[in-house]
Amino acid sequence: MKNKKFDYKLFGAVIFIALFGIVMIYSASSIWANYKFHDSFKFVKSQSVFFIVGILIMLFLAKIDYNKYKKWANVILLGCFVLLVLVLIPGIGSVRNGSRSWFGIGGFGIQPSEFAKIGLIIYVSKYLANNQKDMRYIKKGVLPLLLVIGVFFLLIMLEPDFGTAMVIVLTLVVMIFISGVKISFFVKIGLLGLLGIVGLVIIAPYRMMRIVAFLNPWSDPLGSGYQIIQSLYAIGPGGLLGQGFLKSRQKQFYLPEPQTDFIFSIISEEFGFLGILLITSFFAFIFYRIIKVSLQSSDLFGKYLAFGLGTGIIIQALLNISVVIGLLPVTGVTLPFFSYGGSSLLVSMASIGIILNISRK
Amino acid sequence: MFYNNIHIRIRYVFLVVLICLVITIIKVFYIQVFQYEKLNNLAESLWSRKLPISADRGEIVDRNGKLLATNITTTSLVIIPSQVKDPEDTANKLSQILKSDYKDMLSHVTKKTSIERVHPEGRRLSYEVAEAIDNLKLDGVYLVKESKRYYPCDNLLSHVLGYVGIDNQGLSGLELYYDKYLTGEDGSIKYFSDGKGHKLELSEIYEAPTPGITLQLSIDLDLQLALENELDNAMSKYEADSAIALAMDPNTGEILAMSSRPDFDPNNYQNSSTEIINRNLPIWMTFEPGSTFKIVTLASALEEKTINLFEGSYTDTGSVNVDGATIHCWKHGGHGTQSYLEVVENSCNPGFVSIGLDLGTERLMGYVKDFGFGAKTGIDLNGEATGILFNPSKMGLVETATTAFGQGVSVTPIQQVRAVSAAVNGGSLYRPYLVKNFLETETNSVIKKVDVVKDAQVISGETSELVRFALENVVAHGSGHNAYIENYRIGGKTGTAQTVENGVYSSSKYILSFIGFMPADNPEIVVYVAIQNAKNTVQYGGTVSAPIAKNIFKSAIDILDIDPSEEAIPKEYTWLDTKYVEMPDVTGLSLEEAKKILKGFKVEFSGNGNKVVYQSPGAKMYVKESSTVVLMLN
After folding, report:
1. B395-422 mean pLDDT
2. Contact A167, A111 (CB under 8 A)
3. Residue of B65, B137, B39 lying closest to B436 (CA atoms)
4. Residue B229 class from Cβ within 10 Å (0-12 exposed, 13-18 middle, 19+ buried)?
């Protein structure tokens, strides 16, 4: 295998988008941060630290031979499994926004489900690469894999973190799809998934409220529809060109915690449709570069890994944006590279680091 | 190739992802472009709070632009509860300054509303109170400017202007009638607040209030002042129950001045009883007009040519029997044989009974209605009365006879003024009105001019000329002589009517009235005066009301710039009157000759020549006997 050139285009796009993200976190969070912590830069500072650490990790992983993950895939997955179990134990895992999904370490929080995402993608990539021929047989090839995925899905749903669980499952299913499994299987799995969602709604009725809110947010403007309405009040008045940088009004205590899940609304408000066009173009470009890496990889594991990591990022982005603009019910997924959150940023940048390494082989 | 299947599916996924991205972009475009208006308006109302700024009410000015009603700025307290940081403390401090109940104030301060007004203790604050509140610099407590109605002339024209309530809403008079025009559109200061209700340092949007439209009245403030003054004098002199005066331009229906006593101060209307405020006597009060009504009978008979002022004669024996009822003349023993002109001059009741009976019920009542009696005049005020007439189909001769001299009918002063105006202006019945122009507030340019409304042609121009002549004679020779002004032509008619108390005529309470016009040959003003229950005086309209009208005419001469006339009918003198003589023409004569002719006058001259080039007063003027004449010599 000859070494190819480092993919500067992908690297540059990621650095740009992450920097833009930090700037937007400042704009979105400064008022909240000042109100809560008397420090407008509170969120920017910690996000910047993660950003720098993220770059280092990305550059480091770009140099690490990705084939090592294949060797260590089972160990990594086991580690993730242990963390996901630990986080459920009160006293070890801490609760945020109703989910026991965090390890509080110092001032930072770490989300094991984010790391489980990478662990699972590595594991599935290895599994698909090793069992390429068996993937035509559902029982022999697909079901064992679904069993593993199902266990992790359940663990994450116990937190509960529906959004991350959805991203992971969707990503892995898409990976299985490209491995050559028959289409009819996915129709069946799709129906199953639909039934599953119905089941989940029956278990926890607040999810139904979210769905209703998404169909008509004005039916419960102060309750389930509140976030969507506040989001639309940010996006709509943004118009074509936006209100201008720092000039969002919805971040002034109207949209709750605007620096996290709904940062896309604030970007829409401040930079308008043109800003949104720019961001989506960058996401499309990044995904395009990753797909290219996957297609050009001569190694099956590398192909799956690059594709899986890229799909994970783009599915998460699509889910987040769809929620924010009212195309999907509120699920609680962050926007990669933009939303405030160390784990999310680190995992996204680490993914890019791995992809960069794949691109060189 | 081995990877072919995988690569195809990867490309499928890439395509699906691109489609998803495009869908999201389309959706964002839809939200930001097609839903922009709707969402922006909704969000704007979420972000902004409005502090109201009350609009100035339109002013009311007289025909020359002098202020009759204007506005002064006051300060009011407004609370925005979401911005109040310490409700207890705020309520405590405010209740102390306003001297109001703490609990009451606390409920204002904590009310779940975007903007709370503290009514009424927080309205129209004095300067000291406003400053005290301002000095506290309390969060969520605002002082906003409010406009308060102010009537600079106090009681003047009070019934016509009316008054406004605490929210500047018109409650009576023109303020009520034209409330829609006078009321402006409130403005606001729109400021933006964050989700916690705190004011943001974003630019405030000022929406200027639109002031109401200025009303320009037909009223002449100077004439109104003169008229008010006369009423005050009459009230104190005669200790009357009420007094009414009204001046109208007979050629248009414009009310030039209008007032009555008792009146009120619209600035402090609370101090007057609602009875006084609500009763605008010139349009509300109905009573038997008495002899002033004879003008209508006269005009009708002249138009129908049933009498001839100069040729026919009527012998008054002091009473007349109509259908078994005896009707007395006001003069005991009667007036003897008179021409019909003398019947008018003497205001002879039996004479008018005869005129009325000659006309007949149908024709007389037809004219009474044509002159506008029994119906509202349509003046631009609320609360006008219609008066009461006999039903013509049930009228007997007695009713016709009494109607002819003004008894048994009930009319308003404004109806009389309108009817007499028609009788003397050539026969046109105009609709009386007060608002002449609607003016733009800033520039005072005319937005809309009110047109003169001619409701009917009642009598012919020739008839009207005869009426004027007869009534000028009434003032020069007859019962109206107390209204006579030298060198001016005045026509008019007195009236003395008994008032009805508890359904029967009172033998002691009268309404003494006079209605007159000037100049008699081409009337520019009609004046009506009525005094109810005057004390310490003879109960004749000619004694009480005519002199008042005369004073109003005197003021009108200057104010309306009415020229003296050389063709005035000389007054007939009694021994009590100072005699006036006609000034002979001495210009062009020598000083010697002039002195000879001017015997009996004090002659003063200037200049050294011997020929008179100018004399003052001029020739044919009526001057007091033995008064001074100034001659200028060449």
Report:
1. 92
2. no
3. B65
4. middle
pLDDT of residue B568: 72
Q: Which two tokens stand for residue A294?
A: 């996957």
3-state secondary structure of B573: coil
Q: What is the CATH number of domain B580-633?
A: 3.30.10.20
B77: left (phi over 0), alpha (psi -120 to 50) or beta: beta
Kindly tell me if the per-residue pLDDT of B374 is higher than 80.
yes
Q: Which residues of B touch A180 (CB under 8 A)?
A: 5-6, 9
Domain ranges of chain B: 4-49, 50-159+185-215, 221-264+279-559, 580-633
Nearest-CB residue to B46 (from A179, A254, A307): A254
For testing the chain B interface, which of A249, A280, A298 should be mutated: the one with the most B CBs within 10 Å?
A: A249
Given A234, A295, A314, which is nearest B7 (Cβ)?
Answer: A295
pLDDT digit string, tens, across residues A87-112: 988 888 888 777 787 887 766 678 89
Partners of residue B630 on adjacent β-strands: B604, B616
Give B501's strand partners.
Answer: B504
Judging contacts by C-beta atoms under 8 Å, the chain A residues touching residue B21 are 280, 283-284, 318
pLDDT in tens, B510-545: 899 999 999 999 999 999 999 999 888 888 888 899
Preceding omega of B519 cis (within 30 degrees of 0) = yes
* Cross-chain Cβ contact A253/B28 below 8 Å: no
| E strands in B431-524 | 435-439, 446-449, 454-457, 491-501, 504-518
Say yes or no to pLDDT of B576 above 80: no
Half-sphere exposure of B133 (CA within 13 A, CB side): 27
Residue tagged active-site, from B76, B193, B242, B291: B291
Give the E-state strand segments of B352-490 in sequence order: 428-430, 435-439, 446-449, 454-457
Annotated catalytic, B291? yes
Q: Which amino acid is at B77?
A: L
Q: Is the pLDDT of residue A318 over 60?
A: yes
Q: Could you give the CA distance from residue A329 to residue A212 in angstroms, rounded to a whole number? A: 8
Does domain B50-159+185-215 sit in CATH 3.90.1310.10?
Answer: yes
Q: Do you find a cis peptide bond into A112, omega within 30 degrees of 0?
A: no
User: To probe the interface with B, which of A313, A320, A321, A355 has the most B CB atoms within 10 Å?
Assistant: A321
Residues of A within 8 A of B31 (CB-CB) are: 232, 235-236, 268, 325-326
Q: What number does CATH give the domain B221-264+279-559?
A: 3.40.710.10
Longest dimension (CA), chain B: 151
Among the partner-chain residues A235, A288, A322, the one whose CB lies closest to the CB of B31 is A235
Residue B116, phi then psi, degrees to nearest 5: -120, 130
Residue A178: which of B10, B35, B200 has the nearest Cβ? B10
CA-to-CA distance for B186 and B50, rounded, in angstroms? 11
For B525, list phi and psi in degrees, rounded to 5: -150, 140
The C-alpha atoms of residue B342 and residue B113 are separated, in whole angstroms, by 78
What is the residue-wise DSSP string for B359-390? Answer: H-HHHHHHHHHHTTTTS----SSS-----B--
* B208: closest CA of chain A, how far (Å): 25
Inter-chain contact B32–A268, Cβ cutoff 8 Å? yes
DSSP line for B182-212: H--B-EEEEEEB-TTSPBPSSPPEEE--BPP
Give the nearest chain B residue to A239 (CA atoms): B32
- Inter-residue contact B217 to B208 (CB < 8 Å): no
Sign of CA dihedral B43, B44, B48, B53: negative
Q: Phi and psi dihedrals of B260, rounded to 5? A: -155, 160
The answer to ipTM > 0.90 is yes
